[in-house]
Design goal:
- With 502 residues, this protein is mainly beta.
- The chain folds into 3 domains: 40-183, Sandwich (Immunoglobulin-like); 188-297 and 487-499, Immunoglobulin-like (Sandwich); 341-468, Jelly Rolls (Sandwich), CATH 2.60.120.
- The chain has 2 helices and 35 strands.
- It has helices spanning 2-35, 176-182; strands at residues 44-47, 51-60, 65-73, 78-88, 91-92, 98-100, 105-106, 110-117, 126-138, 153-168, 186-196, 206-212, 228-231, 240-241, 243-247, 255-261, 269-277, 289-291, 311-313, 324-327, 330-332, 336-338, 342-350, 355-364, 372-378, 386-391, 397-401, 406-410, 419-425, 429-435, 440-447, 457-463, 470-480, 489-492, 496-499.
- The strands form 5 sheets. Strands 1, 2, 3, 4, 5, 6, 7, 8, 9 and 10 form a 10-stranded mixed beta sheet that branches.
- The longest helix is centred in the N-terminal third of the chain and has 34 residues, at 2-35.
- The radius of gyration is 34 Å and the shape is elongated.
- The protein starts with a helix and ends with a strand.
């Protein structure tokens, strides 16, 4: 009996001892868990559906906090966000929260949602809470994302939970927008809608001139404009477009920039492209963004004109390139100087039909001078038998056609320059314009039947004998003529903020 009692006691201990051991371990773990400082527990951010949270933080700005959530849209349609709110440690955000972007969000696109709080969190402490995105949703595709309005499903809510750490805003930002702007993991883009209002299509490729409002987006543009590129989708996605800055590479004022649109624009149609404000420099002679040669500290350092225009030369270096044959006194020294009696003629032939030839030039003289010319010399014919810009001693400039007449376009030229002179033809009329690079001085068409200009011609720059003036030029380019002479218009939208790779 004693042996049976001992055996029963042993079996009891073995059976329930494990239970007591497990309970002891669990209690010990719970005690250890609750004794761990909150800052050592893992952070978390998750949506219940619709989006994937990639990051979250509670930013402290001295007297207030801002919750920032980064997420990727997983919905196959289009989401328009109408609001964002959050609760952190039982305190609801003050005012309305918002998301960037908030309109026309596509599957796979990054968003950043912000909710502001009146309390000030201690940095490094951990805070818990929930959040909700309210939105409209539709499944169709949008042709113009900036104008999309989804009405198929309204009031749709995407909720989730967070566990975040308070962080000081050490970037130097005073507002959340500045913080997002300074964050190198974000890319900011501006949609640009370009509209061809003419009943004929542009040529393809087509060189589009943008008067880009740099002051409007100056927060995102570096002072020398070296971080702006253009693409067919935001944040540098899609096809990157070649661009060439003609004037004012600055984050103030208006910047004139030419884009090469490979497919052109159809008649009575619009396309949407994006200006992307990159975190690093994109300014390069090999693109995607370059600038006129005289704008760089080293002549032509970032000149990518050959990638944008149909024909281009900036006369860099100290010798005439193989594109030209010179005659008379011609000096190349990062720009070209043609003395009276001198000229250069292109070694290739070009048709002026539906094309514009532009020359950036000045004349070095104390008084107005005659017979500075540039344009098309008809193949096999003597000089000036073609289509030219020509100056006169009376301070005039105009078109001369086949040496059979002179049509004044502009008067009162000072020759202090430099000017951009343009000339071309639409097969019915000669078309000419002159500007200072900061606005057009004059433009005109000149109807003439003396010759059709659709043939092939040499390009030519001439300072005639006896002109008394050197012709000094810095670049020459050939570009597509706008349909009916009307450059497509551009409308600039609001900044869209995306994550890198979003």
């Amino acid at each position: 009996m004693r042996r049976l009692a001992s055996q029963s006691a042993m079996e009891f201990l073995m059976t329930y001892g494990y239970v007591f051991l497990i309970i002891t371990i669990v209690v010990g773990l719970l005690i250890a868990f609750f004794s761990i400082p909150k800052t050592t527990l893992p952070f978390s951010c998750s949506f219940y559906s619709g989006f994937t949270c990639t990051d979250a933080a509670l930013w402290s700005f001295g007297n207030k906090d801002s919750l920032v959530i980064a997420a990727i849209d997983n919905m196959p349609g289009i989401v328009n966000i109408t609001g964002f709110n959050a609760v952190i440690d039982y305190q609801k955000n003050s005012g309305g929260g918002y998301c960037i972007p908030n309109n026309g969000i596509l599957e796979g696109q990054y968003i950043y949602c912000i909710a502001n709080f009146t309390f000030y969190s201690s940095p490094q402490n951990i805070f818990q809470g929930t959040f909700n995105i309210t939105s409209n949703y539709c499944t169709g595709s949008a042709q113009n994302l900036s104008l999309t309005h989804c009405k198929a499903s309204t009031g749709l809510v995407f909720g989730g939970g967070i566990r975040v750490q308070g962080i000081n805003a050490t970037s130097g930002a005073n507002t959340l927008l500045e913080l997002l702007t300074l964050n190198p993991s974000l890319l900011h883009s501006v949609p640009i809608t370009i509209t061809n209002n003419q009943p004929i299509a542009t040529p393809a490729p087509f060189q589009e001139l943008l008067a880009f409002p740099s002051s409007t987006y100056g927060t995102y543009i570096k002072s020398n404009w070296n971080n702006v590129e253009f693409s067919t989708l935001p944040a540098g996605r899609g096809t990157v477009l070649e661009a060439w800055i003609e004037s004012n590479p600055s984050n103030t004022g208006t910047t004139d920039v030419w884009l090469n649109l490979p497919g052109g624009i159809a008649a009575n149609s619009s396309i949407t492209i994006y200006a992307d404000f990159m975190s690093g420099t994109v300014l390069s002679a090999s693109g995607p963004t370059g600038e006129a040669p005289q704008l760089s500290s080293s002549y032509g350092q970032y000149d990518d004109g050959v990638r944008v225009f149909r024909f281009y030369d900036n006369f860099s270096g100290t010798a005439l390139s193989s594109l030209w044959t010179g005659s008379g006194n011609v000096v190349v020294n990062n720009g070209i100087t043609i003395a009276p009696g001198g000229s250069i003629t292109s070694n290739s032939l070009f048709s002026p039909l539906n094309m514009m030839l532009d020359l950036y030039w000045s004349a070095v003289a104390n008084v107005p001078a005659a017979s500075l010319n540039f344009g098309y010399n008809s193949e096999g014919l003597p000089q000036y038998n073609g289509l030219y810009w020509k100056t006169t001693s009376a301070g005039q400039a105009g078109i001369t056609a086949n040496a059979l007449g002179f049509h004044t376009i502009v008067t009162g030229l000072s020759y202090s320059g430099p000017y951009v002179f343009s000339i071309g033809t639409n097969s019915i009329s000669a078309v000419a314009a002159v500007s200072t690079g900061g606005g057009e001085l004059a433009a005109s068409t000149y109807s003439t039947t003396v010759r059709t200009y659709s043939g092939f011609n040499n390009l030519q720059l001439v300072s005639a004998v006896g002109s008394g003036t050197n012709l000094v030029a810095y670049w020459i380019r050939l570009r597509s003529m706008a349909p009916n002479g009307v450059m497509p218009t551009a409308i600039y939208g609001n900044v869209v903020t995306l994550g890198v790779g979003g």
